[in-house]
Design goal:
With 291 residues, the chain is an alpha/beta fold. The chain has one domain: Rossmann fold (3-Layer(aba) Sandwich). It contains 13 helices and 7 strands. Strands 3-2-1-4-5-7-6 form a 7-stranded mixed sheet, sandwiched between helices. Helix 6 links the parallel strand 1 and strand 2. Helix 1 packs parallel to helix 7. The chain is globular and about 50 Å long. Bound molecules: S-adenosylmethionine. S-adenosylmethionine (SAM) binds next to helix 1.
């Protein structure tokens, strides 16, 4: 099977539209679990942050404090969980964007079910050109697990658009999986996981999987993203984690996985950031002073 060019913005966007429209169409058949999570928003975030190192990068720092009364712009809002959680946690209004009508329908359905419909605005289309209101009009700009879906060609436009929409006193949060060690990354691809064959031991099957995978080939290191954001924001803080918790998949037990994940996440907090910058697999950036 021939693989689309994973550095070409048009090919990557088309593949993302294809993959995510199917996922979100299926997810709309069962809103229940997400509705439940949003109805218990404070407990959900507290539990996610205690049990998942990625969630710490998404919701940590001063984001939660800044949400009260805030106007939020979210790019790549996906199934709408984060947008609705932010509304439940005190945001005044959330404008969220996506690339397929299926995501839009799911996000609107969720907002209506939760009674947030009038404070949730959903825009479908091209984030770079869609009208999103006046420049510098949002208190918070959120890109959760989206930048790693954007090609290198487009990444400066992407960061510039985040900065363009953020108030001078506002905060942008960019959170993604990170690739900080080539060796650990090679090991990751060598170990098969459900749905993904081993690159080392099943190369043909892996190539087929890779052709269907929507992620672009790009630099997802913390250093690279930090440099990118610094070109568009006057101040950027970073949190990297996962040097230890990244091994959670090795705990192959329904009973012990949850407690082990919580313990590994706590252990990660004790590891210095300079080590996490080399070994961590999730990063969250807080960017201020849009240029
Ligand atoms: C891993 S999901 C994250 C969804 C959500 N933010 C979350 O954290 O659950 C990545 C999302 O990025 C969206 N996406 C991919 N390419 C995009 C683009 N060029 N512009 C905006 N969103 C994009 C996809 O549709 C998908 O919903």
């Amino acid at each position: 099977m021939s693989s689309p060019d994973k550095t070409d913005p048009t090919a990557v966007l088309a593949q993302n539209q294809d993959v995510w429209s199917t996922i979100y169409e299926q997810r709309r058949q069962n809103l229940g679990p997400t509705v439940e999570r949003v109805r218990n928003a404070e407990a959900t975030i507290a539990s996610d942050m205690a049990n998942s190192h990625g969630a710490r990068c998404a919701w940590g720092g001063e984001l939660l404090e800044r949400l009260k009364g805030a106007t939020v712009l979210e790019v790549g809002g996906g199934g709408g969980e984060a947008a609705n959680l932010m509304l439940a946690l005190g945001a005044e209004r959330v404008v969220t964007t996506e690339i397929t009508p299926e995501a839009g329908e799911l996000m609107r359905a969720l907002g209506d079910e939760l009674g947030f419909g009038d404070r949730l605005e959903v825009h479908i289309g091209d984030f770079f050109t869609m009208p999103l209101g006046s420049p510098h009009s949002y208190d918070i700009v959120m890109a959760k697990q989206v930048l790693h879906h954007i090609t290198t060609v487009d990444e400066d436009r992407f960061a510039a658009r985040l900065a363009e929409m953020l108030k001078p006193s506002g905060m942008a949060r960019v959170m993604d999986p990170a690739v900080n060690s080539k060796t650990l990354d090679a090991l990751r691809w060598a170990v098969p996981v459900p749905g993904r064959p081993s690159k080392l031991f099943q190369p043909a099957k892996f190539a087929e999987w890779k052709a269907n995978d929507e992620h672009p080939e790009r630099d997802n290191s913390t250093r690279h993203v930090l440099e990118l954001l610094r070109r568009h924001f006057g101040r950027v803080d970073v949190m990297v984690t996962g040097a230890v918790a990244r091994y959670h998949r090795l705990i192959n037990s329904d009973r012990w996985h949850g407690p082990a994940m919580a313990a590994l996440t706590r252990l990660d907090e004790r590891i210095p950031q300079r080590v996490q910058m080399k070994l961590g697999d999730n990063h969250g950036f807080s960017a201020y002073e849009p240029r």
